Amino acid sequence: MLFKGTDKYGTMDFSKEEPMLKKIEELYEKYRSTKDEKLRKSIYREIDSISGLASKYAIANEYDKMMSVIGAKGTNAYTWMEQTVYVNDIPSNQLSTWLDVESERFRNPVMRIFHTELEAVYEEKNISMDNDQDKLWENLFAGLFQKHTYGTQTTIGTVDHLKNPSIKKIREYYNTYYVPNNMAICLSGDLDPDATIKMIREKFSGWKKKDVPVFKVPAEVPFLKPVEKHVYGPNAETMVMAFRFNGAGTRDADLLNLISRLLYNGTAGIIDLDIVQEQKVLAASAFPLIMKDYSALVLSGDPKTGQKLEEVRDLLLQQIEKLKNGDFPDWMIDATINNIRYEEMVQMEQNRYRADLFVTAYVQHRKWEEVIGETNRLAGITRKDIMEFVKASLGNNYVCVYKHTGEDKNVQKVEKPVITPVEVNRDAASGFVQEIMSRKVQPIEPVFLNYETDIKKYYFKNRAPVYYAENTENKTFSVSFVIRMSNKKDRRVPIAVDYINYLGTSKYTPAALKQEFYKLACSYSVYASEENVHVNISGLTVNIEPALALLEQLLRDAKPDESALKNLVSDVLKSRADAKLNQDQILWSGMMNYGTYGNANPYKHMLSEKELTALKAEDLAAFLRDLINYEQEIFFYADLPGEKMLQLFEKHHPLPAEFKVMKDNITFTRLPNTETKVFVVDFDMKQAEILFLSKGPDFDPALIPYARMFNEYFGGGMGSVVFQDMRESKALAYSVFSSFSVPDRKEKPFGVMAYIGTQSDKLSDAMAGMMNLLTKMPQSELLFSTSKDALLQNIRSQRVKPSEMLGYFLNATKLGMNYDIRRNVFETAGKMTLADINSFHEKNISGKKYNIMILGKKSLLDMKTLEKYGKVEFLTLEQIFGY
């Protein structure tokens, strides 16, 4: 509701709007105190009617329009246990204007367009009740915190809360907590601190301090025995367990931060080596959860085929016993501190990370020096400290939640009320917004990349192109070997790059190799993209040479392990089975690929179970050792001269006399849409998710500026046409967007995509609403103007960090471009008109035929509605996954 405006903006005439808003507020109080359902529906009809009248004076998304005009991006808000945070990424020349908007935003918020926003929260609640992970974590917190609000209430509230809303209570909440002595402004970036603080004092000086209720922290009763809970849902089985401790700023919190990394750090922790590396479970992890009043050590695991969740729990508990006994290497603490320092160097390059640290310090009531001094404190913790703490604090005092695959018989649903679409008045602008839009500031000049000068190019051994960007930020490095090999050339590639994680060399066991990398505060990864295998290594520059030597030893001397391969194949088959229980993977992987390419698609191009089980360890290891002999490019980023890096490659990365070349065995072509078809996958869920997919024109760089401008106006953020129409006006979806997608390679065409996440009983209206927008684009000169400002201002203020340059360059080369496409977007978009975008829509989107992909429960879907769009075909999970 804090995005809806005040008495100065978000309205065309507040004097006429206000009486109706007061009446709506009164009706909600009457509604929530009424028990008779028939009478409640009558009251809601009155609310709906008056809301429609009031909306004639409301202007939706004026806040977002102002953010677009000043070039802000990432506009959002989130709320969690102890904080509500409003987020923006603002151009530095618009800081004063942004502060004017924010000071007005929080001065006197008006709760307008309430019932459609409430409907969006209904949707969010229904989604959370459909989500197995949400149920898992809700039960974990309820078990850990039986007196504290961390566990006794959820952020979004209960079904009964949502069925009985109160604008009056919301305003009371705002008046109580949105006061200057209970708020902080956290800023990081290109600003003058003294001048910024002076501006804040001027613009927020009218705010009055109020007494804020003091939260009395409930004393939780110690656990004398384990607390175990069971939840059910359609997704794969998993478990999570946690131990409760004192909160932020305590010795407990510091010890938890270090202990969690000793247990699990993704490379060489006790869980990493003794459980994950040994393939005893499908997946396992540990992490600390640090909050103001209490903290927790959280451990989780996914079972292998036939493995009981209790077995996973016991394996995790065994690792804690190793900590108690000091069963970890002497160097482990120092290595962990070095790895933390490396992570901090990389993270501190980000404004968002620094601002989030301020948020942490404020919310947890901690001094800044204490927050940034954490790593130094961790370095002072000894093996003895850890052993004593773990022995005293981690026993049978845990909460464990087991997530089983099965029907949840306790699922509720917030029913959809009847809502008449409200006006959004997208062409109107309040006086406040007009003044903001009319302001002139000294523009920030855009800075574009020049790949000829920003990136140095070498030829290593006259065979391998080498691209180098200098790191001027810190003492870290990254190197990527991009090898011309993919599963389109050899279907063994995906399992081979997974297999390498479980292999050692003639000198090191797999575990010892991971430990050596961790000692160096360096790490490696090998993954396969659609076209290439990427071998990456990064870490502290001081250790670049031994890290490169280790990586090369693994690539050239990987030793086969038959047992590891057998376990990996078993885990791959289990992961495949689990994917068929995961609605995100069903929709965004299986159905997306099926709708894009048809039955023969990249997602299904994999080894069969028979082929997997027939693999031989020596053959796969030999395949891995041979990878480095194929065509490749090298990308490196370091605070070293390029010539020095070439010397290191000369010493540690010998190339073959001639590269091997392998052609693709298969090509996947996006099918043209000659008719609209509807494909449905039946899945046990209360929601319905809908994808509209259609092939666009062949790739042409000249279309990219139009695609960017169209996406900004039509289907992007909260101010876009799609969001305003589908959510703000009609409350037809919780999540909705559309895009004209740019391919990642020049050989691929553009694509048209639209997504709706909604309640099953809204399916008919939601599909009709989206199809109407795809057929005829609503036109608003004001919205186009703000969208254009947003795009241009974003480019003006964007600065590509040195660590990002190579990624930009690689993406450009894949599209056949040797220049920064942002320059073309900036120059072309600056001349565009609404007529240009409407013409683009008519040519590339309107009248398209679609593959419409529907994921939902068959018994809840309106089949007659689906049949209006085209032939309906039900797909099995076997059809979309290929197994």
Write up what this structure looks like.
By secondary structure, the chain is an alpha+beta fold. The protein is 45% helix and 16% strand. It contains 37 helices and 19 strands. The chain has a six-stranded mixed sheet with strand order 8-9-13-10-12-11, with helices on both faces. A six-stranded mixed sheet has the order 16-17-15-18-14-19, sandwiched between helices. The longest helix is centred in the first third of the chain and has 20 residues. It is globular, with a radius of gyration of 29 Å.
Query: Strands of the largest sheet, in order across it?
Result: 8-9-13-10-12-11
How can the largest sheet be summarized?
Answer: 6 strands, mixed
Instruction: Determine the N-to-C terminus distance.
Output: 46 Å
Helix content: 40-55%
Briefly note the structural class of the backbone.
alpha+beta
Q: How would the global form be characterised?
A: globular
Q: Could you tell me the number of beta strands?
A: 19
What percentage of amino acids are in beta strands?
Answer: 15-25%
Mean pLDDT: 94
Q: So how many helices?
A: 37
Which stretches are low in confidence, meaning pLDDT under 50 for 5 or more residues running?
A: none
**What radius of gyration results from the CA coordinates?**
29 Å
Features:
single chain, 883 residues, alpha+beta, 6-stranded mixed sheet, 37 helices
In short:
The chain has 883 residues and is α+β, with helices and mostly antiparallel strands.
Topology (elements, then pairings):
Elements: H1 14-33, H2 37-54, H3 62-70, E1 73-79, E2 84-89, H4 95-105, H5 114-130, H6 132-144, H7 149-152, H8 159-163, H9 167-177, H10 193-203, E3 227-233, E4 238-246, H11 251-263, H12 270-276, E5 283-290, E6 294-302, H13 309-324, H14 332-347, H15 351-363, H16 368-372, H17 374-379, H18 383-393, E7 398-405, H19 431-438, H20 451-454, E8 456-460, E9 464-470, E10 476-483, H21 493-499, H22 510-519, E11 522-528, E12 533-540, H23 544-557, H24 562-579, H25 583-597, H26 609-613, H27 617-626, E13 632-638, H28 642-652, E14 677-682, E15 687-695, H29 704-714, H30 721-729, E16 735-741, E17 751-759, H31 763-775, H32 781-797, H33 802-814, H34 821-829, H35 834-844, E18 851-856, H36 863-867, E19 871-874, H37 877-881
Parallel strand pairs: 3-7, 9-13, 14-18, 14-19
Antiparallel strand pairs: 1-2, 4-6, 4-7, 5-6, 8-9, 10-12, 10-13, 11-12, 15-17, 15-18, 16-17
